[in-house]
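Summary of Year 1 activities. Much of the first year was spent building the evaluation harness for sequence design. The harness presents a backbone, in tokenized form, and records the residue chosen at every position. We chose the following record to illustrate the format because it has been used consistently in internal testing since the harness was completed.
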């Protein structure tokens, strides 16, 4: 009857309003938790308050998104066990809801937990699971703009772990796939890291000219960003090591010296400065250029 339909509609609106109010309350607690000037104990208290409100939300995609937000703050506070538990909850709820996008995100987050704990096999397993779900998403149901960048990050995470595991061919393949996703998403934040990974892989495969090409590309795509100087330094150091591997010591020195020209930046990064000086000294030693060793 019309009266029953009206009651149902009113009830649905009430639930929706209730969820909106609770969501806003969670956000207010998260704002305090994100404030680095707030004591850690207080930040965690607010995360606990946010979680209590989260448990009262209706089971839907919004609830999953909120637990992802809460878990992210626990990760920043290095509370890894709670971060993992929350993402296991989100994976379970996403599976019940058949919410593929949040299933992919949950697998990724769990992969980050294992990567942070240096449990690389488990990290790879979860990243591959995330990649598989992202790759299967229906573009009618899900807007690619909502996940292309996130999918690219998963692929890059995989590529870096595979490189460390010395699976260079698969690492190269995943990195190229990641670059395609970033370009389609028109979000280029991780392109320098992607090209840098391709450079490292190419060096290990002894494709030295290609390695240099990728390192220069990494520096090029970082231009105009806040990472420009850092990436330029990374590229110069890496190009120097490529030339060292080829026993082209004069070219290696050229790039180490280029890196050392960024004196102001390096004054705030003593580890990077020490690395450049050590690499230059080692190349001078290999080339039997003892004069330059004494000058350093």
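For this record, the design step produced the sequence shown next.
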């Amino acid at each position: 009857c019309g009266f029953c339909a009206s009651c149902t509609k009113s009830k649905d609106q009430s639930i929706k309003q209730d969820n909106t109010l609770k969501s806003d309350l969670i956000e207010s607690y998260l704002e305090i938790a994100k404030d680095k000037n707030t004591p850690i104990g207080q930040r965690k208290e607010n995360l606990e308050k946010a979680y209590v409100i989260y448990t009262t939300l209706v089971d839907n995609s919004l609830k999953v998104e909120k637990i992802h937000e809460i878990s992210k703050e626990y990760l920043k506070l290095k509370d890894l066990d709670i971060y993992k538990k929350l993402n296991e909850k989100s994976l379970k709820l996403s599976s019940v809801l058949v919410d593929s996008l949040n299933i992919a995100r949950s697998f990724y987050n769990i992969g980050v937990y294992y990567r942070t704990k240096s449990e690389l096999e488990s990290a790879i397993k979860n990243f591959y699971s995330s990649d598989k779900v992202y790759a299967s998403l229906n573009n009618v149901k899900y807007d690619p703009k909502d996940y292309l960048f996130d999918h690219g990050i998963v692929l890059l995470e995989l590529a870096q772990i595979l490189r460390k595991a010395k699976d260079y061919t698969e690492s190269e393949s995943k990195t190229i796939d990641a670059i395609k996703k970033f370009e389609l998403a028109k979000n280029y934040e991780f392109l320098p890291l992607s090209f840098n990974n391709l450079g490292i892989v190419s060096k290990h495969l002894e494709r030295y000219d290609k390695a240099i090409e990728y390192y220069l590309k990494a520096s090029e795509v970082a231009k105009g960003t806040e990472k420009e100087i850092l990436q330029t330094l990374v590229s110069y150091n890496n190009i120097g090591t490529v030339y060292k591997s080829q026993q082209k010591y004069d070219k290696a020195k050229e790039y180490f010296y280029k890196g050392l020209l960024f004196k102001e930046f390096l004054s705030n990064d003593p580890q990077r400065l020490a690395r450049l000086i050590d690499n230059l000294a080692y190349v001078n030693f290999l080339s039997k250029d003892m004069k330059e060793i004494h000058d350093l």
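The chain has 15 helices and no strands. Quantitative recovery figures across the full test set are reported in Table 2.
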